[in-house]
Amino acid sequence: MTQVLLAGGCGFIGSHLADRICRRPDVTRLVVVDNLWTGRIENLAAVADPRVEFVQSDVETFSSETKFDEIYHLASPASPPWYMAQPLRTISANVVGALNLLGLLKPGGVIGYTSTSEVYGDPVITPQPETYRGSVDCTGPRSSYDESKRCVEAMLFEAHRVRGTRVKVVRLFNVYGPRTRPDDGRAVSNFITQALQGKPITIFGDGAQTRSWGHIDDIVAALERYFWLEGTEYPGPVNIGNDREISVLEVAEFIQSHFPKSPITFLPPVVQDPTNRRPDLTLCNQILPGWQCAIPYEEGVMLSVEWFRKEMLIPA
């Protein structure tokens, strides 16, 4: 019987992972820890399951007499406006949080970590394989997020090498979909919420920067397979994302085509905004054969529009 700790389980991705964990008959207890900084208790549909316990706490200070069989660390903001506003808190959630969680892991247990494609910085090669060391700036305005993720990766792989700790590290690429905060601040959610309110759709820069957007349903299916279903002991890192590269402008134009009253406007570029992002999925295809981001962004965006419409109580 399995006891699981999920840090950041009220967040966008974490809450979807909680739903998947609750499908498992072997799980007798799921403790969800979230300080509700960027997460929302409304996201936690799984809380209705009697096996689920919600604890409102910072991941750095959470304590328990239980040693957990599985721990998943998703307790970090992922949107630049949020982590840039509180950089020290972001670093603490990732790094100090990981140190704390390692102490709560049962001997022989496994810790899973959602790292990010941001560890590649503004890449000079595309697509980006896991072996690429990145083009990063450890003193720049995005460094609180990028570098804390890189530090936790280093910590976990050192624990794996030195102590034999079982770890599983994924690098996620540009996830979007239901349960994103309306004020999240990233491109897809920004464009949708602006359009639904009849406001201009704002692009930072010229929109030529590319991303590889993966719908949450596809991404969480990959996490489920890698973290527990496949039984792999490969520690990672593993890229998980959509290898279809799309410009920010193209997404804005697609959304604007459904909301013609919302013009596209351009604002000054964000400092050090990466020019491109696309995962090399060669390793992912070996670890998770047959998996892919099956939901085209056009379909995924419209599914997201309907979710945001209901969330924001905007009539069709």
TrEMBL record:
Give the cofactors, semicolon-separated.
NAD(+)
Q: Which Gene3D superfamilies match?
A: NAD(P)-binding Rossmann-like Domain
Concerning Pfam families, the annotation shows:
Epimerase (PF01370)
Coiled coil ranges (UniProt) are none
Q: Which UniProt keywords apply?
A: Decarboxylase, Lyase, NAD
Report the superkingdom from the record: Bacteria
Task: Please list the residue ranges annotated as the NAD-dependent epimerase/dehydratase domain.
Answer: 4-226
Q: What is this protein called?
A: UDP-glucose 4-epimerase
Which organism is this entry from? Answer: Devosia yakushimensis
